[in-house]
Design brief:
This protein is an all-alpha fold. It has helices at residues 2-11, 14-36, 43-67, 76-93, 99-123, 128-147, 160-164, 179-197, 199-209, 211-216, 221-247, 258-268, 280-298, 305-340, 346-357, and strands spanning 168-172, 175-178. It has a two-stranded antiparallel ribbon.
């Protein structure tokens, strides 16, 4: 009986409710725009969404990795720009390099910049929002000085660069499953598994959920926070590679503004800005929802650009309200269930840990 209760709690955890809500909103939006816009439900629009969402989806996962530990990275847009420019510059001098080598170069650059952020935040104990706001400008300034204002143009890059974004894994009736989208889905699946199954992932949730308890449990908080920033930087570097193959011509201003889109996608996807809860899959769905709405609203001529921006703001507010509401309801329910158990045994403890694991508040 207790195992059935625990199983039910896992299925109906706040994270699952948020994910199902997002799936429902995405489906409802597609149906609504399908009625309003002629030719909306076509392979062409599907291909546009699945291709354009790639960069924001990766950055949403990167931002989520940092937010889980109750931090934030405002510099990932600059990391995208630096990674994209340096990778493009590398390819102009090394035309032998294939896509895998180029992606690894971009991720190494991103990881190096992320480690700089991590050192300042984790070991320098500078608040993340201040530290990364500073490195946002610092990284952008350094790449501007390095580039000297010159762009890396598409004609100087290997031929495969411009064609990479359009590579298709499978195509059915005009609906193309692009390689870049498959890569992002694979990254999200791996990260979701790692955060739930690996000890480092569970402890990162624990740090964000209750930093004081994490310190009392002797968790290596600085090292784990450092790990989250390095991982976020590496993912931002991958996004820089995706930016390069999409844009072709790269300037020192590449990636500007992407940090705000990444935060929005993560928050809309159910990642609590207060840390300790949320999923990579939710952040991915948040990116899809935002990108779908942006591309859809453009096709509705009656909606002005002002209202398109307002729609994103409303989404963020609703996501925060939903997160707060579900957190309060879940906390009351869990407290009530534990109060009913006079002598918590192994079964009662398993119920508590099962539900806590799905909200990120897991045992060390």
């Amino acid at each position: 009986m207790t195992s059935q209760i625990a199983s039910g709690r896992r299925r109906m955890s706040p994270d699952r409710i948020k994910e199902l809500t997002l799936v429902g909103i995405i489906a409802g939006s597609v149906i609504m725009f399908g009625i309003l816009v002629d030719g909306y439900l076509s392979g062409r629009f599907f291909n546009r969404v699945t291709t354009s969402v790639v960069i924001v989806a990766i950055l949403a996962a990167a931002q989520a990795l940092v937010i889980f530990s109750r931090n934030i990275d405002l510099s990932i847009g600059s990391i995208v720009g630096v990674s994209a420019y340096l990778t493009a510059d590398f390819l102009t001098a090394n035309e032998w390099a294939n896509p895998l080598v180029a992606m690894l170069v971009a991720m190494v650059v991103g990881a190096a910049l992320g480690s700089f952020n991590g050192l300042i935040v984790a070991y320098g104990r500078v608040p993340a929002i201040i530290a990364t706001l500073g490195t946002l400008a610092l990284f952008r300034t350094l790449i501007s000085l390095y580039s000297g204002g010159a762009n890396v143009i598409a004609s100087d890059l290997p031929g495969w660069v411009l064609g990479f974004n359009g590579l298709t894994v499978v195509s059915v009736a005009g609906f193309d499953l692009r390689l870049v989208f498959v890569i992002v889905v694979g990254v999200v699946v791996i990260l979701q598994w790692a955060m739930r199954r690996l000890r480092a992932g569970r402890r990162l949730y624990a740090i964000g959920s209750n930093p004081d308890a994490a310190r009392q449990a002797s968790l290596a908080a600085p090292r784990l926070i450092m790990f989250s920033f390095v991982g976020a930087g590496s993912l931002a570097g991958m996004a820089g590679f995706m930016f390069m193959v999409r844009a072709g011509t790269i300037s020192a201003t590449a990636g500007s503004g992407l940090e705000l889109e990444a935060v929005a996608a993560a928050v809309v996807g159910g990642v609590s800005i207060f840390g300790g809860s949320g999923t990579m899959f939710g952040a991915f769905l948040g990116a899809i929802l935002i990108d779908t709405l942006e591309l859809s609203l453009v096709r509705v001529t009656q909606v002005s650009e002002f209202w398109r921006d307002a729609a994103l703001g409303i989404l963020i507010l609703l996501a925060v309200i939903l997160d707060a509401t579900l957190h309060k309801r879940f906390t009351r329910r869990l407290t009530r269930d534990l109060d009913r158990t006079e002598t918590p045994g192994d079964d009662a403890l398993s119920v508590h840990m099962g539900t806590a694991a799905d909200t990120g508040a897991v045992d060390a």
